[in-house]
């Protein structure tokens, strides 16, 4: 959720900066939006790794159960 909040706030700041001619606020918004996108990507990677680990663990658990 934090990543979505950062992206939303970043876009808002960027738009406000463009509207008011405040380049600093515009750049701040772009950076915050980019941070949100990176956070979102890292969360996706984390979920993928967690899924892969669970799959490997389940595979070993099944082999142990079959060996009994």
TrEMBL record:
Region (Disordered) location: 1-24
InterPro entries named in the record: CsbD, YjbJ_sf
UniProt superkingdom: Bacteria
Domain CsbD-like: 4-49
Family: Belongs to the UPF0337 (CsbD) family.
Protein name as annotated: CsbD-like protein
Organism: Eremococcus coleocola ACS-139-V-Col8
């Amino acid at each position: 959720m934090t990543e979505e909040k950062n992206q939303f706030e970043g876009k808002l700041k960027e738009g406000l900066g463009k509207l008011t001619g405040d380049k600093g606020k515009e750049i701040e918004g772009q950076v915050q939006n980019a941070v949100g996108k990176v956070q979102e990507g890292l969360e996706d990677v984390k979920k993928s790794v967690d899924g892969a680990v669970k799959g490997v663990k389940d595979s070993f658990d099944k082999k142990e159960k079959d060996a009994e």
